[in-house]
Structures are given as structure tokens and as C-alpha cells.
Design goal:
Elements (H helix, E strand, L loop, with lengths): L5 H11 L3 E5 L3 H13 L4 E6 H7 L1 H14 L4 E8 L2 H10 L3 E4 L6 H17 L3 E6 L25 H11 L3 E4 L10 E2 L6 H13 L7 E3 L7 H9 L8 E2 L3 H9 L2 E6 L1 H17 L6 H23 L9
Parallel strand pairs: 1-2, 1-10, 2-3, 3-4, 4-5, 5-6, 6-8, 8-10
Antiparallel strand pairs: 7-9
Bound molecules: glyceraldehyde-3-phosphate (G3H), 1,3-dihydroxyacetonephosphate and zinc ion (ZN).
The site of glyceraldehyde-3-phosphate has 9 residues, from helix 3 and strand 3.
Length: about 325
């Protein structure tokens, strides 16, 4: 089955009031886990690839792995560039055959963000590719001390409904990532914080009122950072902070019903993989066959993805709508 276009997937998801899982792929085991879970649950899926994933795995390897995945399943699969940080990177991915790219100009002033986004949209639309933009800055502390990376806002600026309308109209962008209290990584919230659902509703309403219809919104930073998995990591020698929390799954469900059509999940996959590997190493310190720890890691990620698509995103059973 060829790659599916997110345009089609979004239209069906909006109609069916479910969300599409956009899961980050960095290696073969993650890819197999995601695709196998979605196949068994009959869920359409978006595989997303970051700049870091391309650097880690090599774009050609990722492309060939995804081609392999597509050839062994018949569920709809879309491939998306996650957090493209330049026109050049987006263009490169479009030229390689991606059907969806994100240009993340959220750190730029509005006018510059819109200008960059429009430039990507103009190129993408000529090549049958769709574009996700981002407006507002996510809160939180991904890449805080001790984590690799850097560059994400710690303060956070929520997306303004009127600016969202202006941005979509000015750029022609196909979907918009919003900042409503969401953040990346394993350390999102302290205590009982929640997404700002009222802000999300206001953004959605402003887009409808402006004649932009049931416009697809995207929720980044949608990992829930499951406490049991964090505890398991720590039980087997990890040292993750246990006082912080992810986005409650109940919030994701409300966001889904309020029009977040694409929900990005990476951290929860990383946590599941880490917990399984740590368990094998702790229980069998003599183990050195990678299949003996990557196998259980793949199984744990698969069960996590199954849970997400079935119970949180509710896209299970919608592969052949
Ligand atoms: O939001 C970012 C994703 O989790 C990808 O992270 O840039 O470390 O691959 P990465
Ligand atoms: P998490 O860090 O919450 O998994 O978010 C992933 C993401 O937004 C990828 O773009
Ligand atoms: Zn993100």
C-alpha cells in the first residue's frame, strides 16, 4: 500500500471525532512496535521523523524501514517531518517524498513565523505535500539540565485565537500546532496541572467563526509520562524525577473531542523502551544479546501504542473508514 496523505486522514478523523496518533520513529524496533500495534488495532497512523531522528538513523535507512513497514501492512500510514527547523530541511523532506512536513517557527516573531511558514507552504503545495505550522510557545522543561538538545521555550506563550486565524489565513497552512499548556519531554507539569481546554475551545471557535471550518489542530507534547513506567525505570536503576507529570489522558480525550486531530507522542515510547531494557539488564546482568532486550522493549512500546490508539485517541477500528 502506498503512503497515505494526512489530508485524507485528517478529514476522516475530524468527521469521526477521533485523533490520529503521530508517533516518533528513530529505529526499527520503535517502527515495528507502532505499526504492529496499529495494524492489530486497525488504526490509521502518522509516523513522524525529527531532524534528530534523521541524524541518528540516516534518512535513507528510515525511508527504507518505512517502505518495509508499508509493504507488510495494509493500514493507512502517513510520514511526517516533526519540528522542521528550516525551509531547506522541509524542502529536502518534500523532495524525498514526505507527504507532510512541519515547519516550526514558533520561536520567531509572528510576522517572521508566518513568512517562513508561507514559503514552505508554497513549495509543499506544488509538490502534493501538506504543512503543519506552530503558533505560540510550549511551556515546560524538555531539555532542562541533564537532557540533551535545548532550544525549547521554558516560559511558554499560549496561542491567541485571533492570531491563529490570521496565521492560517496568511500562510494557507494545512494544520496548526497550538500551545495550551502542553510541553515536550518527561517533565511537563508539577502537581495537578492541566491543559487549558478553554483556550483550545476559543481557538477552535475563532477558526470556525472565521469561515475556516473544522480546522485541524495539533497537540504536541501529548505524552502522559505514566507513573508506573517511571517507577519501573527507577526500580531498575533509573533516576527519573517522580514528582513531575505528563498530560493526563483525560485531558487528551477532551482535546481530541475539541478538535486536536493529530496528537504527538514520543516521550512515552522512550520511557516504555527504557523500562523494558532496564528490567532485562537488572534481572540478567549477564545478558548481552541485543535481541533479548530490544525484543521486550519492542513489546512494551507496542502495548503502549495499543493503549493510546484504543483508549485515548479512539482511532482504533478506523483504518478502513
Ligand atoms: O518534540 C520533539 C520530539 O520528541 C522529537 O525529539 O528532536 O529528540 O528527536 P528529538
Ligand atoms: P512528548 O515529548 O510529550 O512525547 O511530545 C512529542 C512531540 O510533541 C513530538 O513533536
Ligand atoms: Zn513536538
Amino acid at each position: 500500500m502506498p503512503l497515505t496523505h494526512t489530508r485524507e486522514l485528517f478529514a476522516k478523523a475530524l468527521k469521526g471525532k477521533y485523533a490520529l496518533g503521530a508517533f516518533n520513529v528513530n529505529n526499527m524496533e520503535l517502527l515495528q512496535a507502532i505499526v504492529e500495534a496499529c495494524e492489530e488495532e486497525k488504526a490509521p497512523v502518522i509516523l513522524q521523523i525529527s531532524k534528530g531522528a534523521r541524524q541518528y538513523a540516516n534518512p535513507v535507512y528510515l525511508k527504507k524501514l518505512i517502505e518495509a513497514a508499508i509493504s507488510v501492512t495494509n493500514i493507512p500510514i502517513a510520514v511526517h517531518l516533526d519540528h522542521g527547523d528550516s525551509y531547506e530541511l522541509c524542502k529536502q523532506c518534500i523532495d524525498e517524498g514526505f507527504t507532510s512536513v512541519m515547519i516550526d517557527g514558533s520561536h520567531l516573531p509572528f510576522a517572521k513565523n508566518a513568512e517562513l511558514c508561507k514559503k514552505v507552504v508554497d513549495y509543499a503545495h506544488k509538490h502534493d505535500c501538506v504543512v503543519e505550522g506552530e503558533l505560540g510557545q510550549l511551556v515546560g522543561a524538555q531539555h532542562d539540565d541533564g537532557e540533551e538538545g535545548g532550544g525549547y521555550s521554558k516560559g511558554g506563550v499560549y496561542t491567541h485565537p485571533d492570531e491563529a486565524v490570521q496565521f492560517v489565513k496568511q500562510t494557507g497552512v494545512d494544520s496548526l500546532a497550538v500551545a495550551i499548556g502542553n510541553s515536550h519531554g518527561a517533565y511537563k507539569f508539577k502537581g495537578e496541572q492541566h491543559l487549558d481546554i478553554e483556550r483550545l475551545k476559543a481557538i477552535k471557535k475563532a477558526l470556525v467563526d472565521a469561515g475556516l471550518g473544522d480546522y485541524p489542530l495539533v497537540l504536541h507534547g501529548a505524552s502522559s509520562v505514566p507513573k508506573d513506567i517511571v517507577r519501573e525505570i527507577n526500580q531498575y536503576g533509573g533516576q527519573l524525577g517522580e514528582g513531575t507529570a505528563g498530560v493526563p489522558e483525560a485531558d487528551i480525550e477532551i482535546a481530541r473531542r475539541t478538535g486536536c486531530t493529530k496528537v504527538n507522542i514520543d516521550t512515552d515510547l522512550r520511557l516504555a523502551m527504557t523500562a523494558a531494557i532496564r528490567k532485562v539488564f537488572a534481572e540478567g546482568p549477564k545478558e548481552f544479546d541485543p535481541r533479548k532486550y530490544l525484543g521486550p522493549a519492542r513489546t512494551k512500546v507496542k502495548e503502549l501504542v495499543r493503549h493510546k490508539v484504543r483508549n485515548v485517541l479512539c482511532c482504533a477500528g478506523h483504518a478502513f473508514d
